[in-house]
Protein: Phosphoenolpyruvate-protein phosphotransferase
Amino acid sequence: MRHQLTGTPASRGMALGRARMVQPSLFTVDMRMLEDAEVGPEIARLHKAIDHARAELRELRSKLHGALAREVGDFIDAHSLLLDDEELLRGLDELVSVGHYTASAALKMQRDRLAAVFDAMNDPYLKSRGEDIDQVIGRVMSALFQSSSREERKLAARVGEIIVSDTVAPADLASMAGQGMLGVVTTAGSVYSHSAILARSFNLPMLVGTKDALATINDGDLVLIDAENGDVVVHPTAQDLARYRQWQRQAAAEGRRLAALASAPTLTRDGAHVRLFANAELAGDVTLARARGADGVGLYRSEFLFLRQRGLPSEDEQFAAYRDVVLGMGGLPVTIRTLDLGADKADSAGLAIRGEENPALGVRGIRLSLRYPDIFLVQLRAILRAACYGPVRVLVPMITHLGELTEVRRLLKKAREQLSLEGHELPERLDVGAMIEVPAAAIGVASILQKADFLAIGTNDLAQYTLAADRNNDALEGIYDPLQPAFLRLIAHVIAAARRAKKPVSLCGEIAGDIQFTALLLAMGLEEFSMHPGQLLQVRDRLTTLDCAALRRAAPHLFRAHTRDEVEQRLLAVVAKQDGCAGAA
Ligand code: PEP
Ligand code: MG
Structure:
């Protein structure tokens, strides 16, 4: 029977395919009884998973330093102790060897038994420790399924399928996209998550916050995602399919109209020049950036190189990847951002620290790079070598204070010295820029500008940290809102400071490619926008309709607004007035 669910479009478009249910946070418990001959191998499988979980905890422990070691270390130790608990282990063994339960069933039964014990406790602290049981059993379950279900999960997406899940990690999304998956529907997640950014890169329609998707869609159901309007239809009717065909025709026509703009200059209606750069994660983004007439790459997210493969990429592998982007851009500037691992981006090499209590506020971006200077040095060397093939700039993510930039410059100098001693060719200069995505850097931008040759404003993170709202949490939609006046004033402050210092400033968060924000950013004095290349023509098209000088005059009035609705209304009024003038002209 046809039914329809609503969600938030995170990557536009429509797709028709078969649902593939993926539930990464749930493990399938196999309740079948084991044959006698299966008992031995199942015990061995269980012990291997427990050993694996122990090793993971040891590794995690060894990576902690300083205050983090003190705070998180106790939790890890408690988990390790649980894994060595004789009663727990004996109980598991007995359930498999005597009861003939599978390892997953035994784990679940032990978990339920212990959870009931903790639940019955009166002491609220002890009660809360029940969570440890869940986490420890979850870790063993995950290890248990690593060889089988992880592989299955990786293969979960096949040509023509639409993934339905609670959330999708960026690395999983990248691997499934390569297998011909057509779209994604998640029950949680947000438009500003890294997975959503990747979905836009892969041109895959994606809906987030589709509440009942896991409960009401079944594996293999035919589903139609409409990520233009924010719905997904299960068992679409002939009428729905007609809507899909209509959208395909319209999208093709709009594509042809915009294609004419690919070689056009980027000018506002009153003739102001604006530079449009591309955000690139994949080789295909570079091709598209060229095809759409980008002025260069404004943000190359180098961490995706680390997310796509097992282990750390070597200096030569990194060099080859960066050089190919530089060559691909044919002499246009390429901004390579150094590793921004951490938070929701965990690499398979295990560099990003796992299990942080508050990872978005944890060791991510430059904080992680400076913790591993040898690994960071390898990246800086690779960037320097690639910079001999065309204009390259290096951009540093998550800068909080000037000291971090000083340290980056010191390491760059060291990388130069090493390469020079080894007889490598070196670029004459390599501009170093700071991403402004931490409020402290935005407020203290005047100091940051002392050591930065250019700035790139990362509004995806700047919004999450300024508004104290997780960019991945769809429940905070009303708060994580880039139209909030306080946030807009902060961006305007950064742009003004860079302009005063006569240093280039671009904006590379998702709002740069959203035509709802084009007028607002122009009013703030922004002249360099960096976005996914798929959005470039729409933004260029939008700019041709806007009067830059009039918008700049209206800026103080816009930013004096008290609420986001007031900002929106004032902006609409300013733009409507412009449209009226254009109509009269
Ligand atoms: C940002 O934070 O706005 C940004 C561009 O970086 P990322 O989305 O990769 O965190
Ligand atoms: Mg960021």
Summary: The chain has two domains: 3-255, 265-584. The pocket of magnesium ion (ligand 2) is lined by residues 397, 437, 458, 460-461 (CB under 6 Å). Residues 19 and 162 are 5 Å apart (CA to CA). The longest helix spans residues 36-62.
